[in-house]
Amino acid sequence: MALAVNGAKTGVINLIDLVNYSNPTSVQIAANQVEFSALAVYNNAGSKPAGTNTEVNIRAVNGQGFINGSTHPTGFSLFYRRVGLNTGVTSFTDQFAITVNTSWDQLRTAIATANNQVYDDVKIYEQGVALGTDPIMNTVPPANSGEGNTQVFNLIPVGTIVESAWVSTSYVYDTTTAAVTGNWQSTDTPLDQNITVRDLDGFVPAT
Known about the structure:
Distance between the termini: 89 Å
Number of strands: 10
Strand content: 15-25%
Number of helices: 4
């Protein structure tokens, strides 16, 4: 069974929704009732269920309505498929208008909103260590003040480096990356809109 990602929710809440969606006749679980382990990633290897790429352990939080039974005292495995950053939505939007005043947070919000992405699970590689409130142009200054230029931004899921490779730790997104283009817009008034009278008065002799 498949469920669309809900960008308005966190990654873990999306996973809980998937558990409930896949078990419609069972008592629905809430976020405070379970805990998940770190993800184990694979490519349909061995005896893993076909069509899945992720394994995660789920265990009950004692005193919240469920217990870890005697057959699974430390929880049990769930198997499911995570999606790529550009495959988690039917139509991926990859063009965004930016100006010299646009901050990294504003661009991330625009991308997440347009593509129904979980905001906290997606990073922009070019942002590096810059603050979210910093203007983009401080890190990747455009030529000629930006007007008419473009800048490619690479989207990566939250994650960590394992054996020199970036591995996603998102409960929703696999390690597949995506790219968008920022189209630098002018923040100045076009000259032709300011000078509307083109038939100028002539000069007169100086006194």
